[in-house]
Each structure stands twice: as structure tokens, then as C-alpha cells.
Write a structure and sequence with these properties.
Elements: H1 7-12, E1 31-33, H2 34-38, E2 51-56, E3 67-70, E4 75-85, E5 91-102, E6 126-129, E7 145-153, E8 159-161, E9 166-176, E10 181-194, E11 199-203, E12 216-218, E13 221-222, E14 224-228, E15 272-277, E16 286-287, E17 292-296, E18 311-320, E19 334-342, E20 348-350, E21 354-355, E22 376-377, E23 381-387, E24 398-409, E25 425-438, E26 455-456, E27 459-464, H3 478-486, H4 514-521
Parallel strand pairs: 2-13, 3-14, 15-26, 17-27
Antiparallel strand pairs: 1-12, 2-4, 4-9, 5-7, 5-8, 5-10, 6-7, 10-11, 10-14, 15-18, 16-17, 18-24, 19-23, 19-25, 20-24, 21-24, 22-23, 25-27
Helix pairs in contact: 3-4
């Protein structure tokens, strides 16, 4: 078993920089001016070798159009929102969200409520959120709209996306008012994650230039522009036999919108915190739909694989949005967080929380390192929290890894378990009191009950021994076969008998016979990463939240 962490000393040292898990969210991408980029961003050629989101101003064609000329006729205009996989490999989409900003309701009216495009996303277990578009407060205040839409897969099946695929997430339908002009629709606060909650796409900037828009594109999220044509010049009526002195002036549109006062009020999205355990879904050691995971007891080493001797668990958050208290037209972002971890200390010896988001490589590393010395360690509960200093720079928003737990099994379990069939001690690692605050201490948008997150996820853990692993090295091999053979034919009361080697049946039959030998020899080649047969983690005794 891995040596338990010195938790109290670790928590005291967290005021300095800690090198931990590198988060994907917030990796820097280059910036392009949207007007120059619009001329080349029209498929089939892929613009970037990654997953990205694009707005399409002409949904009647297969191409993704960055610029469209629109006849000046009152009516509706469909704008497609597309996720595209140009990463070079197939991906599984597990969650996504986006905002689309319309700076000028004099040209395009408020769109309808976004909805999932079931043609390209046919999964029956999506959970989606689509509040009504904001019709009076946006990054420019009155006269702008902001449409949010987000979905999370709640079932076991995930949405496949082949390399080169272009999936329409949703379609926003705007009304064309009949006023001439140019309007650029901008995606922002965009995130997408795969089946393991690993970020595939993140565009977190909400900084917009003043009207007229000169909007910087943040790769890999690309806007679309509508050039609404001027109305045709009125044609004079032909003269009649009796001339009439009728003067029909030319109708020239000279309307120049005046920029309203800049304010920023993002739509509350409801942040969610949940646990992502390390391990293999394919081999049954992890089930992310519950979620649940195995923690194998490993003593003699090397015990280097996921869940061997300890189990690392990421506390992940999605849909984090904040206000703009300093008036810079940017979300203030995350500045501090806190949560309680409760566990059965007869099964789990320690949970060892550490900061990720503000540490080197984290989504909020520019605000770090964080001060986490205010955390409290009790008998079976840890209250873990971190704060950062100063009003700037802005903290992270969107989806990112928040913290890490390192679960260590209690050593006394080796007196209660043995490497037989279906062994294990199930338990639940429970989170409560999850709070996220912006850099000024305000709760993130969508918080309830004075600042708590509405969703604060748990994890079911089964602490167990690999079946047939007599020397506890997470592998069944010739060493284990030699050990069981040495004790062959021993019976209860003899020197060589031990219940540790009496593997079959599960209740022990007080002798070590051919069944016990076959229990080990038949599992030759089994490891904790690839158990033979699979040892699936146990479901919680009651459903989460029950």
C-alpha cells in the first residue's frame, strides 16, 4: 500500500506554488481579426487542427458560411451553431455549452429559445438547459441579446464524432427587421468536454470592442456576419394623361446606431461540481455514469497504475459564470472555492485534497498560487478551501478542474478482506457545502441558499483486492501460483492453513484444495488495470441524493 500522505503538513504548505495536474481549459490559442478570417473560413478546408465551434449564417448549404448577404425583407434568418472535429481522431462528446451575442436588435430581433438539434445529436439521454434569450441586457446593455444553451449527457452512451465531422448543435432563429446594416454574431463562454470530462474546446473570453463592432475572434470559436442589404430605391410611378405633381424622394438609409452604455450581466447558468475518478472505463474499473470506481489494495508494488494503492479523483466544475463588478466588460471569474468531503474513516484513511485550478498549469494559474491553509481536517471530514489575492487578473470561467482528492485505503482492511471472489468494502465519498466565489467574494451566478452550488457530486468507491493476488502487487503471476501451491492440501488447524489462501468458496470450506489452486492459476495474467474476470465497482447503497 502506498504510504499515506502527511495531510496536515501538506495543507500548511499549500500557500506556495504546487505542481499538480495540468488542466486543458484555458490553453492559449492565437487570435485573428474576424474580417480577415471571414474570407478563408468557408469549408471544406479545415481552418484548425482541433475541435472548434462555428456559427453558420446560411444553413441551406453544406458549407459553413462566415459572411452572408441578406435581402432587406422582413422575415426570419436561421443561424446554425456547429461543433466540428478536426483533431485528427474520433471524439466522444459528453457535454457542451455556448453563448451567442447579438449586438444590435435594430437589425436582428430576439431569437427563440435554443434547443438540441436531434438530427445530429440523436442521443436520448441529453440533459439540456436553455433559458430564454436576454432581451435587454448584454455586453452593450439595451439593444443587444445573449442566448445561452448547454447540454450534458447523463446516460452511459456518449455522442460519437468522427474526425472531420460537422455536427449542428442547435439553430437560432432571428427576425430580420428590415433595417440595413452589418451585424456580427459572436460565440463566447464556449466549452465542450469528452466522455471523461476532459475539455475538448474552451473559449472563455467575453471582451467585446465598442460599436461599430471590431470583434476579435478567439480561436477555436468563430463568429458569423450578416450584411443586410439596403432597401431598393423607390421607383417613380409612370406619368398619366393628367400629370400630377408628385415628388417621390429616394429612400436612402443613413441610420447610424448610437452605442448604448456598456454593462455586463451574463445569464446565470448554474455551476455544477462533480467527481471524475482515474481508471479505465473499458475494463470496468470506473463507471462515470454513476459515478463509481475501484480502489485496489496494493502493498508490494510498484503500485503505479490508477487506483493501485490510492485513487486520485478530480473535482471538476462546469458552467461557471460570474458578474462584472469592476466594469471592464469581462466576467470577474473564480477567486475562491470551498467544499466539504465526508468519508468513512474505517474504510478510507485519508482523502488528501490539493488545489488544481490556481496551481501551475491550472485554468486560474495566473491568479495563483492560492492560499489553502484555512482548510480543516476532522475525524471523517475535510473542509477544503482556497483563496487568491487581489482584484486582478480575472479568474477562470466555464469548465475546468478545481481540485484533486487522493484516497488512501485504511490498512486494517487487510484483516477483513481476502483475495477471493467478489471481495470488497463499498463506501461513498460525499461532497457538500460546495461554494464558488468570484474575485470580489460574490457567489457565482446560479448559486442557491446564500452561495451554495445546486449540484455537488458524490463518488462510490469499492476498496478491494484483485482476485487471486496473494502478494498484493496488483498482478496475478507465477509468484501467486507458487504461494497457493505451497499451501496446497492444508486444512483448518494445520500449520500451513490460512483463510488468506482458502479462496473458494467465498465462505471458506476450511481446506486449501484444487478449487483454490485453480482460483489463482485460472487468473494468470490478471492485473488491477485489466482484471480477469472484471471486478466492477459496487453501486452506492442508496442512489446519490437519496
Amino acid at each position: 500500500m502506498k504510504k499515506p500522505h502527511a495531510l496536515i503538513g501538506l495543507l500548511a504548505a499549500l500557500g506556495t506554488a504546487i505542481g499538480v495536474l495540468v488542466a486543458v481549459v484555458g490553453l492559449p490559442y492565437g487570435r485573428l481579426n474576424y474580417t480577415a478570417f471571414a474570407g478563408i473560413y468557408n469549408h471544406p478546408a479545415a481552418a484548425q487542427a482541433n475541435v472548434h465551434l462555428s456559427l453558420d449564417c446560411d444553413t441551406t448549404t453544406s458549407a459553413i458560411d462566415a459572411v452572408c448577404s441578406v435581402p432587406n425583407v422582413p422575415g426570419s434568418r436561421a443561424i446554425g451553431v456547429k461543433l466540428e472535429n478536426w483533431s485528427g481522431a474520433a471524439k466522444l462528446y459528453g457535454a457542451f455549452n455556448f453563448d451567442v451575442y447579438n449586438p444590435d436588435t435594430t437589425l436582428l430581433t430576439i431569437p427563440g429559445v435554443p434547443a438540441l438539434n436531434v438530427v445530429d445529436f440523436p442521443s436520448i439521454e441529453w440533459s439540456c438547459s436553455s433559458p430564454a434569450p436576454d432581451n435587454d441586457t448584454g455586453a452593450y446593455g439595451a439593444g443587444a441579446t445573449d442566448s445561452f444553451f448547454g447540454c450534458l449527457i447523463t446516460g452511459a452512451a456518449y455522442e460519437p464524432a468522427a474526425d472531420g465531422s460537422e455536427k449542428t448543435v442547435s439553430t437560432l432563429t432571428y427576425g430580420v427587421t428590415g433595417t440595413a446594416g452589418t451585424v456580427t454574431l459572436l460565440p463566447f463562454a464556449v466549452s465542450a468536454a469528452d466522455e471523461n470530462a476532459i475539455t475538448l474546446l474552451a473559449c472563455d473570453s467575453t471582451t467585446l470592442a465598442p460599436v461599430p463592432p471590431v470583434i476579435g475572434v478567439t480561436e477555436p470559436c468563430f463568429p458569423t456576419t450578416l450584411n443586410i442589404e439596403p432597401p431598393p430605391t423607390a421607383t417613380p410611378a409612370p406619368p398619366t394623361d393628367t400629370p400630377t405633381n408628385t415628388n417621390t424622394p429616394t429612400n436612402t438609409n443613413t441610420f447610424t446606431p448610437v452605442p448604448p452604455t456598456a454593462t455586463f450581466t451574463p445569464t446565470p447558468q448554474g455551476a455544477v461540481q462533480y467527481k471524475v475518478p482515474e481508471g479505465s472505463v473499458a475494463n470496468g474499473n470506473v463507471d462515470l455514469t454513476v459515478p463509481k470506481a475501484n480502489l485496489f489494495i496494493c502493498v508490494t508494488g510498484p503500485c503505479a497504475g490508477p487506483g493501485e494503492g490510492d485513487l486520485k479523483v478530480i473535482e471538476h466544475v462546469i458552467n461557471v459564470t460570474t458578474g462584472d463588478s469592476d466594469g471592464d466588460l469581462d466576467q470577474d471569474g473564480l477567486g475562491a472555492y470551498e467544499f466539504n468531503v465526508e468519508y468513512d474513516n474505517f474504510i478510507i484513511q485519508s482523502v488528501n485534497p490539493t488545489d488544481v485550478v490556481f496551481a501551475a498549469g491550472g485554468a486560474g494559474a495566473t491568479r495563483g498560487p492560492a492560499n489553502c491553509t484555512f482548510s480543516l481536517v476532522l475525524e471523517n471530514k475535510v473542509r477544503f478551501g482556497c483563496v487568491t489575492t487581489g482584484p486582478s487578473p480575472d479568474g477562470p470561467t466555464g469548465n475546468f478542474d478545481l481540485a484533486q482528492l487522493d484516497l488512501v485505503p485504511h490498512p486494517d482492511l487487510m484483516n477483513d478482506l481476502f483475495p477471493g471472489n467478489d471481495n470488497g468494502a463499498p463506501t461513498v465519498i460525499k461532497d457538500n457545502g460546495c461554494e464558488l466565489a468570484d474575485v470580489f467574494g460574490h457567489p457565482v451566478l446560479g448559486s442557491v441558499g446564500g452561495g451554495l452550488l445546486a449540484t455537488c457530486g458524490d463518488l462510490a468507491v469499492t476498496v478491494r483486492i484483485l482476485e487471486g493476488d496473494l502478494n498484493l502487487d496488483c498482478a496475478v503471476n507465477v509468484t501467486d501460483e507458487a504461494l497457493i501451491a505451497y499451501h496446497y492440501a492444508a486444512v483448518f488447524g494445520s500449520t500451513y492453513y490460512s483463510t488468506w489462501f482458502d479462496l473458494e468458496p467465498r465462505q471458506h470450506d476450511l481446506d486449501i484444495d484444487i478449487k483454490d489452486l485453480q482460483k489463482v492459476f485460472g487468473r494468470d495474467g490478471s492485473t488491477c488495470q485489466n482484471p480477469i474476470p472484471q471486478q466492477t465497482p459496487v453501486n452506492p447503497g442508496v442512489p446519490f441524493g437519496g
